[in-house]
Amino acid sequence: MKSLFETESHSEILSRINTLNESSKGLWGKMEVGQMLLHCQFPLNLALGRYEMKKPNPIMKLIFKSFKKGLYNDSVWKPNMPTAKPFKVVDKREFITEKEKLITAVNDFHQEKSKKEWDPHPAFDHFTPEQWGKMQYKHLDHHLRQFGV
Known about the structure:
By secondary structure, the chain is mainly alpha-helical.
């Protein structure tokens, strides 16, 4: 799996984001392109300590643990996977604003490529730096594929 910490993968993601436009349509799911751009900011901002997510109860935490490896392994996520409640976007979003914010978050995350210690994820607990980079790439790749780029 590629990593958002890799320079080539970082450039690839930015290029794909810049391919999107206001009329880009999803191949699956309910989100419009502006909503997807905001949705993709949440995991990046969570990792960067700019977004707080409520910790799940112990039972949910056990369930999350069962698919933790799927967040950063080499398998591609299937279309129409359920979205975590804190990351759902249902209101209309302004494309240019959300695109600029996502690009900033992608760049800020990439700048942390040398960081050795990361705060635990509220739902999945600890990730290595390598896992954080792969997970962020995989999430962005999933939604960029959703919009055909």
